[in-house]
Design goal:
globular; three-stranded mixed sheet; binds iron/sulfur cluster; seven-stranded mixed sheet; TIM Barrel; alpha/beta
């Protein structure tokens, strides 16, 4: 496990307004922590750490900023007369159940505030630690819309070990989702990021889709890997070291941030066919919150 330094700060605001034209349903986010001990090599949030004067590689994995007063600030914001109880997404720039949560309990405190104000929210995680809060999530689901997304790119442990070194095994995430779904909490899977030549084959996509269905997911979202500045300069050396044979393909594909449109469309079409095949199509199940497009998100 990584040696991590926690930097405690007091935040001025808890809720962040988001304006992304392609995602009109995603309006507010909340991140109790900045940076993430889960250390996923592809994490799209890495570049954010540079605003604090840290690097987006080892510092992002090991220097976690903790907003110690986030829950009390959130309660104040939820009480404002102008607040219209819009849905808030927790964990768009960090994992709200990374190991820091065991020490600080800030995600739990934020969920308690949402419950007390009957405010809808969604949350995205790669941690099985969320099962500590099953009862709370159940209480929240009783008074407001609440969704939990588990991010799962692959079930192959040899790949998982390299790309998400400090996260719970995919199997543990699935087991956690089963517990939440059995408790009546609406859960889904983000099949993301879909990584060219590593997780984009039909066998992998189908295995995750089937496992999602078998463990209580109500929906499956998907997104292809993108490499923003702050991420690319760490991801490419990782690739060179771990999967050197893939480097030429990536250099062709990722001249910019996104994979070529044609590739992304082909992958989305495959996922869409698998959704239909495994009874996870939006017509039969509920659609994924738009947050899914952010993560990798999350
Ligand atoms: S992708 Fe998510 S879980 Fe992984 S490091 Fe980034 S914020 Fe953490």
């Amino acid at each position: 496990m990584l040696q991590v330094t926690f930097e405690e700060i007091e935040c001025k605001s808890a809720l962040n307004r988001v304006r992304i034209p392609s995602m009109p349903g995603l309006r507010w986010t909340l991140n109790p922590y900045r940076a993430c001990q889960h250390a996923c090599v592809y994490c799209f949030a890495r570049g954010n750490h540079e605003y604090l004067g840290y690097n987006s590689g080892s510092d992002f994995d090991r220097r976690v900023v903790v907003k110690t007063n986030v829950a009390s600030v959130l309660r104040r914001e939820l009480k404002r007369p102008g607040w219209r109880r819009e849905s808030v997404t927790i964990g768009t720039a960090c994992d709200p159940y990374q190991q820091a949560e065991l020490k600080y309990g800030l995600t739990r405190a934020a969920l308690q505030a949402f419950r007390d104000h009957a405010n809808p929210c969604s949350l995205i995680t790669k941690s099985a630690g969320i099962t500590r809060d099953v009862a709370l999530l159940r209480e929240l689901s009783d008074v407001a819309e609440c969704s939990v997304l588990f991010s799962i790119a692959t079930l192959r442990e040899d790949v998982w070990r390299h790309i998400e070194p400090e996260t719970a095994k995919p199997k543990q995430r699935l087991e956690a989702m089963r517990k939440l779904a059995d408790a009546g909490i609406r859960c889904g899977v983000m099949l993301a990021p879909i990584i060219p030549s590593l997780t984009d084959d039909k066998e992998n996509l189908e295995a995750v889709m089937k496992a999602a269905r078998d463990h209580g997911a109500a929906f499956v979202g998907d997104n292809v890997l993108y490499l923003k500045p702050g991420t690319k300069e760490w991801f490419m050396p990782f690739l060179r070291e771990t999967y050197p044979h893939l480097l030429p393909r990536y250099e062709r594909m990722y001249r910019g941030i996104y994979a070529p449109k044609r590739y992304s469309e082909e992958v989305h079409d495959t996922v869409q066919r698998l959704r239909a095949r495994w009874d996870m199509s939006p017509e039969r199940r509920t659609p994924a919150p738009e947050v899914g497009q952010l993560q990798f998100a999350v």
